[in-house]
Amino acid sequence: MTAPLQEIDGPDGAIGGPKKVTVIGAGIAGLVAAYELERLGHHVQIIEGSREIGGRIHTHRFPGGGRAGPFAELGAMRIPAGHRLTMHYIAELGLQNQVREFRTLFSDDAAYLPSSSGYLRVRDARETLVNDFAAGLPNRHYRENTLLFGAWLDASIRAIAPRKFYDALHDEIGVELLNLVDHIDLTPYRRGSAGNRIDLHAFFADHPQVRSFCPPRLERFLDDVLDETSSTIVRLRNGMDELPRRLASRIRGEISTGQEVVGIDVRDEAVILRIRQGFRTLTKTCDYVVCTVPFTVLRRMRLTGFDQDKLDIVHQTKYWPATKIAFHCREPFWEKDGISGGASFTGGLVRQTYYPPADGDPALGAVLLASYAIGPDADALSRLSEAERTAVVTRELSVMHPELRRPGMLLGVAGRAWGSHRWSWGAATVRWVQEAALREAERREATRPQKGLFFAGEHCSSKPAWIEGAIESAIDAAHEIEWYEPRANRVFAASRPSPSDGSV
Questions:
Q1: Sign of the CA dihedral 386, 387, 392, 394?
Q2: Average per-residue pLDDT in the chain?
Q3: Which residue ranges does the chain devote to CATH 3.50.50.60?
Q4: CA–CA gap between residue 93 and residue 7 (Å, rounded)
Q5: I want to staple 384 with a disulfide (CB 3.0 to 4.6 A). Which of 32, 56, 335, 388 is the partner?
Q6: Are strands 288-291 and 20-24 parallel, antiparallel or unpaired?
Q7: Where in the chain is the domain with CATH 3.90.660.10?
Q8: Is the separation of the CB atoms in 98 and 246 below 8 Å?
């Protein structure tokens, strides 16, 4: 596994002397790459096209009348506790005291989900979900717990996957899988006040062999289902943007915002960047460059000196859009409805609704992450104007939460449509439909350098769509630059250790 780099003894702490490195992008991948390269003794500058740092970590803070108002995570909002690189940086940056539980989908018995008979509470959904699931099976001879397992797996997929993707997966919880599960005692995995649901994450952790009986598309999607329904996910109490802010404060080199790279020319001895600053376009000659921007942004630049295979992966890598809409509410009305946190599956265009903890001053109101949608569902919302989006989300969500229509309840709205956001043009690479061998081949090609131009970002990692993937790729890029042999115009001297084996 990739490991954080250790500082290396030698002239200026760098093998062969310090290098001058320009990092494109001040998201997590760019910041970690700069941080690690500086620890190794190299000189680093970061250039960022937008006026913000953090990339797809975006914490929106609502006004609080001069005080710290409530906030919403419009980008990355959670970290699986098993993501050891991310947890390492949280500890190294002194953020351990901010780590809190992230309550996720269906974790609250009072949350809602849609069914054939309308919205149901999680605590009351068992019978309806089981009957709906069993009605689609060729026979119903399975034990009660097996049907409950299938029903909650189906409900979780329906809540997490875009609607069109779910339609293709719906029938893949097949007989072979249920036959195997029917021989396993599921009693230890029943959760909820009445044991009305199955802890899928714990079950698959204890029975990894069951995954081999899942149809290929379902098996590839299962990691996302298990991550999003896990009980071991965390957040940062004061906002996820604390992570990029703390990283930036540790970097000695210049971090320049408002500098948009519009062209990259790779040459034998240098990488030439064309940078737009306001109405001017400047040229910067760089010894080494780490490009961390999404390929959706990179392919809008003028690229020269790239080989054809690299251009192909840049133009062919697919990204899922995501749209988040947060409501600043006068009060956390959901608490009076018995909901203390977690998330409901709303359905429709809204998809998922999260209830963040109301940690701040009650007089400043509370935040409801009213809608979190991905894929075509996110695109449908992003095509609407802000007023239309607010109206659609309010209308759909009011069926479940009529309190939203009370006069003065809605104080403000904030949103981010990542699929149409200028600095991302997508939320994350998602490779659910690909075989493992193809996923790895694409990752390697995405990462492969072009002479002095290196690449990092979640799209270059084994964990796309997560902060962990961005960090992993940044550490690997720092390894590659450290061991780059420019005279041979190739990456790695013969004795270079592999970045994936944890060595330095």
A1: positive
A2: 89
A3: 11-51+257-318+430-501
A4: 17
A5: 388
A6: parallel
A7: 59-81+320-420
A8: no
Token code pair at residue 9: 């003894």
What's the CATH fold of domain 11-51+257-318+430-501?
Answer: FAD/NAD(P)-binding domain (3.50.50)
The residue count of the chain comes to 504
Classified as helix, coil or strand, 296 is helix
Confidence of residue 503 (pLDDT cuts 50, 70, 90): very low
Q: Is 274 buried (19+), middle (13-18) or exposed (0-12) by CB count in 10 A?
A: middle
CB-based contact 197:66 (threshold 8 Å): no
CATH label, 59-81+320-420, candidates 3.30.70.1130, 3.20.20.140, 3.40.1190.10, 3.90.660.10 = 3.90.660.10
Report the percent of the chain where pLDDT is more than 70.
91
Q: Are strands 322-329 and 366-374 parallel, antiparallel or unpaired?
A: antiparallel
Q: Exposed, middle or buried by CB within 10 Å (0-12, 13-18, 19+), for 121?
A: middle
Q: Over the stretch 311-334, which tens digit does the pLDDT of each residue have? A: 999 999 999 999 999 999 999 999
Q: What is the structure's pLDDT at 5?
A: 53
What's the token pair of residue 138?
Answer: 């060729």
DSSP state of 497: P
Q: What are phi and psi of 70, to 5 degrees?
A: -70, 155
Q: Is the pLDDT of residue 244 over 90?
A: yes
Residue 53's nearest CA partner among 251, 233, 327 is 251
Name the residue type at position 214.
C
Strands 112-115 and 255-256: unpaired
Question: Which two three-digit tokens encode residue 499?
Answer: 């970045």
User: How far is it, in rounded angstroms, from Cα 161 to Cα 236?
Assistant: 25
pLDDT digits (tens, 9 = 90+) for 443-456: 999 999 999 999 99
What backbone phi and psi angles, to 5 degrees, belong to 357?
-60, 140
Q: Is the pLDDT of residue 395 over 80?
A: yes
Residue appearing with tokens 């690449």: 455
pTM for this prediction: 0.90
Q: How far is CA 239 from CA 60, 184, 340, 346, in A?
A: 9, 41, 19, 25
DSSP code per residue over 358-394:
--S-GGG-EEEEEEEEETHHHHHHHTS-HHHHHHHHH
CA 196/CA 123 separation, integer angstroms: 6
